[in-house]
Amino acid sequence: MQKKQIGILLCLPSFIIIFFVLGYPLGYSIYISFLKMNIASSLRGPEFVGLTNYVNALYDIKLWAAIGRTAYITVWDVLVGTSLGLLMALLLNTMLKGRGILRAIVLFPFILPPVVNGLIWKWVYNPNYGFLNGFLYQIGIIRNYQSWLSQPWTALHMIILANLWQGTAFAYILYLGGLQSIPLQLYDAAKIDGASRYQTLIRITLPLLLPITLVIVVLKTILTFKLFDLIYVLTGGGPANSTQVITYYIYKKSFDFLEFGGAAALSYILTLLLLVFVYVYYKLLQKDVY
Amino acid sequence: MSKKSFRYIIFVGVVFLLLWTLAPLYVVFISSITPDKDLLNVPPKWIPTPDLSNYAYALTSGEEGGTAWLFRKSLVNSFIVAAGVTVFCLFIGGLAGYAFSRFALPFKDKLLFLVLFTQMLPVITVVIPLYLIFSTFRMLDRLITLVIVYSSFTLPLVIWLLKGFFDTIPADLEEAAMVDGSTLLGAFFRIVVPLSIPGVIATGGLAFLAAWNEFMIVLVFTSTAASKTMPVAIAEFIGRFRVDYGLMCSVGIIASLLPVALALVFQKYLVQGLSAGGVKG
What we know:
By secondary structure, chain A is mostly helical.
C-alpha cells in the first residue's frame, strides 16, 4: 500500500463519524429550513415552502430583540471580561508568593459545568435567603431583599455578571500565553535604557498583546453568542423575555413550539452570523498571532 | 513608581482576585454544610456550624426515583459517557492525528478550518436535525447516542491537538523501529504514543471535560433516568418549585469535584490544550 493510502485509511474512522453525525445533519437541516414542519398542529406532514421561513425571520421582532440582547451581553463580556483577564494575567505573571496555587484557583470557575455555574448564582441571587441580598443588606446598600431575577433590568445584568464570572479565566489563559511568549531581552533592554515599569507596560507589553487581544475578542464574541445553559437554569428567558438570547429563542421555537422548519432557518442565520467571526479569526491565525 | 507602592498594588490585586473568584464558591460551599434550619436565616450565616448530612443524603440515601437517587444515577451516566467519549476520541482521533502529522494528505490544510468550524458551530443548528434523525431510529434516549454525538463534536479538536503533539516527536525513531521489522501501527503505539503521553493526557482531559459539562444535547435527547446525565439532573432539580437549597449546593459541589481535580492535577497540560485549541472545549 502507498503511504498516502495508509494515511487516508487511518483518518477514515474519524471522518465517517464526523460526516454522519455532523456533515449529513447539517445538510439535512438546510432541507428542513425550507419546510413547514409543525409536528404539533399539522396532520399533513411537512410541506415545502421555499424561502418562507427565512423571509418570516426578517420580520420576526422577537428574533431581532434576541439578537440585540445577545449583542448587549457580548459587549459587556468582551469589554469587562477581556480587561479582567488581562489584569489577572499581568498579576499572575509577576513573581509573587503562592503564584502556582493562585494560577490553579483562578481556573475553577472556568472548568465548572455551566449548569453548576447556574446553580451557584441561582442560590446567590435567591430573593428570600440569598447571600447577595444578605451582603448588600448587611453593609447597608439595600433596605429590602430584592428579587434579582424577577425584574427585567436586574435579571439581564445578573446574567451578565454570572457569565462574566465563569468566563474570565478564558481571556486570562490566552493572555498569560501571550505574556510568556514576549522575549525577555526586550525587558532587559528597556531596563538598561532606564524605562519605568509603567513605560515598559505601555510601550512594550500592551502593544505586543494587541494581536492576541483581537483573537480573544473574536472568540469571546462567538462563545457569548452561543450562551444557553446559564439562561436555561437561571431565568428560562424571562421575565417578559428580558433574558431571551438568540440560542434560547431558537431552542424554544423548535422544542417547545415544535416549529422545526422555522427554527432550522433561524439556526442557519445564527450560523452564518458566527461564520463571519470565524472567518475573521481564521485570517488572524494566518497572520501568526500565536 | 517605588518598589513599595508596586507591592501594594500587587497585594490589592491578589485580594480582589481571590474575592472575585472564591466568594461565590465559598457561599455554595458553606451552604452545603449548613444545617437546614440555619440555611433560611435572614441575614444569612457566613460561618456555619459544619454538618455533612446533605452529602450523606446525596451520596448514600434517598428512595429509588427520588432526587438523590436520580442524581447518583446521572453521575454514573455522566462518567460512562465522558469516559467513553475520551477513550473513543483518543483512539480514532489519535490514528487520524498521526496520519495528519506524518503523511502528505490531500486535505491537510483544511483540518484547521474544520476544527474552527466545529468549535464555533452553534449546537442548536445540529441538534434540530439530529433530534429528527435519531427519533426515527428510536435512538434518542440512549447513552451510546450521546457518546457518538459528543465524539463527532470533539474529534476535530482532538485530531488537531494530537497532530500538534506528534509533530514534536522526530520521525527517525519510528523509521528506525520499522527498519528493525516493526509495523507502522506497532511503531505508533510503542514509540509515538508513549513519548507524547503529556499531550494525550491534555487532549483526553479536554474531551472528558467537554462531555462531562455538555447540557443542550442531553437536554433535548434524553427523557428517562436511564440516560440523563448530571447537568440535566441538576437543571431539573433547580427547576422544581420547592428546592432543598442545602442539598442543591452539595450536589453542585459533588458534580464539580471531578473537573476541579482534573484541573488541579493536569493544570499545565489543560492550559496548554486550551490555548493550543484556542477555543473552549
